[in-house]
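Lecture notes, structural biology module. Today: joint structure prediction for complexes of two components.
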Amino acid sequence: MTATAETRRDEPPKVSPWNDPRVRSVLFQALLVAAVVFMIYEAITNASENLQRQRIATGLGFWDNVAGFGISQSMIHYSEVTSTYGRVFWVGLINTLLVAIVGIVLATFLGFAVGIARLSKNILVACIARWYVELIRNLPLLLQLLFWYNAVLKALPSVRDSAALPLGSFLNNRGLFMPKPVTGPTFDLVIVTFLAGLALAIGFRMWARKRQERTGQQAPVGRVTLGLLFVPSTLTFLLLGNPLTFDAPVAGRFNISGGMVLQPEFLALLFGLVLYTAAFIAEVVRAGILAVSRGQTEAASALGLRPNQTTKLVIVPQALRVIIPPLTSQYLNLTKNSSLAVFVGYPDLANVFTGTVLNQTGQAIEVVGITMMVYLTLSLGTSMIMNWYNGRNALVER
Amino acid sequence: MKKLLVTAALAAATAFAASAASAQTLNAVKQKGQLTCGSNTGLAGFGQPDAQGNWTGLDVEYCRAVAAAIFNDPTKVKFVPLSAKDRFTALQSGEVDLLVRNTTWTISRDTSLGLEFGPVNYYDGQGFMVRKSLKVASAKELSGASVCVQQGTTTELNLADYFRANKLELKSVTFATSDETIKAYDAGRCDAFTTDASGLYSERLRLANANDHLVLPEIISKEPLGPSVRHGDNQWWDLVKWTHYALLTAEELGVTKANVDEMLKSDNPDVKRLLGAEGKFGEAMGLTNDWAYRIVKHLGNYGEMFERTVGQGSQLKIARGQNALWSKGGLQYAPPIR
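The predicted structure, tokenised, for the full assembly:
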């Protein structure tokens, strides 16, 4: 018995390759890969065969064909006369990005505010925040979007009885019409001054931080930054004699022309997405703050930090470590949920490209494939940025 | 997202479906014991479930006629409500056997979507509806107006064409389903609503105050609406085509639901051939020879179907117009059954 055990320890056991776990694992993995590759190959050939037999057009040839339908909102030039399906793709993508980015920014602010409000010592504030979170979080998003769209449309005055708002704006059931800023030829100088101020402010912050690390002296960073950003650019703006004019909206026969407009579809979608996602972010924020132990606050007070310094320098940096990863998935959710735009008529990617273009060309596989790639890219991109930010905030152990 | 998922699933189904469309549709339908028919999600007069959940309408009755010819039972149809956007993918992927959903026959749909179109069961054209309070008398006055339109329709393209040709400024707002489109128009989001003229009359019934709205006189396009099937199954395509022709021939020969049994004894050779007393036309299609008798026995002829669903017997009260028989000044014409 002992002898066999010793021989086993000295030399590798002599088993047939079939019973060798390493050979086996390689074999099974190879088999799995082969099966997956075979399935993909089968799917592709089968699809192309079926498409060919049914005489369904394939390929990306449709990309350069003229689209020939109208789109209600476009940030880039789009004309139903000359623009191609490819252009429709870009219009849709930009509209998706617009609602996603604006939505993420607003949802973050609202979510942080509500999350902090839930921890408020003021019972009324905490209670309102709690009800908001519980109500919004537990209703389907689509229902909320339809509610906002119909509530917004029904409640607003018709275009001929537009509500006049200050600064030459109008509000009616076609949207919020605002004066459009038109920049004069010298306006670029103002932008250049602003950018220069920004560069100086960043430089000052770095210098102030280095100095604080060296000597412990603090500089009034906030006030200096604000001053550098806005004082020179405002002065330039005034010296150049106000190179910015506004194109005010004017009521026409049917619609209001001129100016710029936030359409009710956009507003309803944005409103719905922001309120919904903010409720989740609020819970993430609350959890993050509660995760910082009470001892940290007490220790900070013992060191003589003031309450706002405690929040800024002790609690928030630690809470962020807990908040950022789930926050990332909320951002991803918001971006993906923006494809519900189709139900409220907002021309996002899923609406104009996966909707109209797919239907007009009939090329489901190509169009759905491209759409999947786009959402995948957007999600992975967001994740990358957030992971980088998370890495910066993660605990650095020395 | 749900729509996207459905489309994605259908695309995947197209990819994985083994040889779906060969000459097998009729056999598959017989085996299933029912016909799966793609229909409207709800368009009065064409395809809509009533209060009891029974589907009614001209397009719906087309499906019932095909079922009657196959099973001698017009109730053996399963209706799958499809939005304009999802309808072709559903047919291509084999989810439905037959699509009768006020679908316009165009060259691109016929040649690049893998479809075959049957005979036109309703000749239509696109029109506009506006509020009377707008004081608009013609579509040419609509420059700068915003127009609500359903996505994925020929309507969407015609609209852009018409505004372009007449140098009008267009602001279209598109929605995925007809429901959302008409609701948005009703809520005042748009000045005008556009779809096929028949659709305007039936959608008008759903507005809060139908009498405040007016259908403009312009018809801006040809919209031949008809059934479609998958490309590559000619036997099935023939059956679908001849169902409509049998309905027309019955009207032409004066064979109705009420007198069809009596007509069986007729001496008229045309009637005999139609009802299967002479010839073996049904067998050639994979049916029984009394196929057309079954259709008329259960559903009547085309004229009866028309009046019951969209004509004088319905809420819509649409005149026959272009949909009258060729012998009465219309466009409905059936090749001879012989």
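Point to remember: The first strand of chain A starts at residue 163 and ends at 165.
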